[in-house]
Amino acid sequence: MAEHLASIFGTEKDRVNCPFYFKIGACRHGDRCSRLHTKPSVSPTLLLSNMYQRPDMITPGVDPQGQPLDPTKIQDHFEDFYEDLFEELGKYGEIESLNICDNLADHMVGNVYAQFREEEHAAAALQNLSGRFYAGRPIIVDFSPVTDFREATCRQYEENVCNRGGYCNFMHLKKISKDLRRQLFGRRSRRSRSRSHSPPRHRNHDDRPSGGGRGGGYSDHRHSDRSRRPRSRSPGRRSGRNRSPEGKRNRSPVREGSAERRAKIEKWNREKEAKSAATTD
How does pLDDT run across 204-225, given as a tens digit for each residue? Predict the structure, then answer.
C-alpha cells in the first residue's frame, strides 16, 4: 500500500495531494483546493508571487490609458526587470534558472521562479527578500516544490499552438533575448576562464520598469542604505564579489528528480500527521 501511494504521489491519481501545486507551485483553487498544498521546508527554487507587472496587464498590447504599446518597448520593459532581478538574486548565490510566467490567471500572473545552484543560497535569498518591497509592492516569496520546469511548462505554448491562451494552467514562460541570456548566464563561465566581460547593453532609461529599475525599485526599511547603493550595469565591476561560500564555487549541482521530490514531500506529510496526532492526544 505504501509503495502504491508513493508511486502516485503528486499525480492525477493522488486524491490527497494537489498535482498542480506539485508541478507548477501554484493552484487556481488556492486555499479552497480540496487537496493538500504541502510547502517544502527547503528547496533550491523560490516562488516570487505576482512580482512582474507587465505594462499591458489590463489589456494585452495596450497601456492603462488605452494607447497601443510597441511590442519592442514591452520586451525592453521585461528585460530590464529580468536583469534587475537577476542581479539582486545573484547577491545570494549562483542562479541556475530564472523563469517568469506570461500567464494571465490570478494565481500565475507575473510569477517568478528562481532556481539556485544550492538550497542554502535559496534560503539566504528568501530570508533577505522577505519583508522588502519592489516598485512599491511587497515581495511575496516562498520555497517552491518545482525543480523540473520541463514538467511545468506548456509545450504547446513553446510551439505557438496553445489554444488556452494566457489562462492555461501550465507555465507560459516569457523569453529573453539570446544576447541578454549570454550576458547574464555566461558570466559564470567567463569568471572561470579569464574574468573578461562583454560590453553592457545600451537601453533607453525611460523604458525601465516603474520604481526605478536597476535596483531602484527595491526598498527595505531594515537595509535602506544598501538598497539605495548605486550598482554598475557592467558585469566586470562586480566580478570580484564572492557569491557563494568558499569551496562550493565549482561544485556540481545535485538536482532532485520528481520521484525524489515526491518522496520528500510524502515524508513531510507523515511528519505533519504525526505531530497533529500527538497534539490531539
Answer: 434 444 444 444 577 764 444 4
CB 106 within 8 A of CB 26: no
DSSP string, 82-119: HHHHHHHHTTSS-EEEEEEB---STTTTT-EEEEESSH
Contacts for 251-257: CB closer than 8 Å, 24+ residues apart = 251/117, 251/118, 253/44, 253/96, 253/117, 253/118, 255/44, 255/147, 256/147, 257/147, 257/148
- What's the pTM value of the predicted model, to 2 decimals? 0.67
Q: How far, in Å, are 40, 47, 173 from residue 108 at the CA level?
A: 19, 10, 11
SS3 247: coil
Q: Give the DSSP H or E segment for 152.
A: helix 149-152
Q: Stretch 76-81: mean pLDDT, rounded?
A: 95
Location of C-alpha cell 536597476: 214
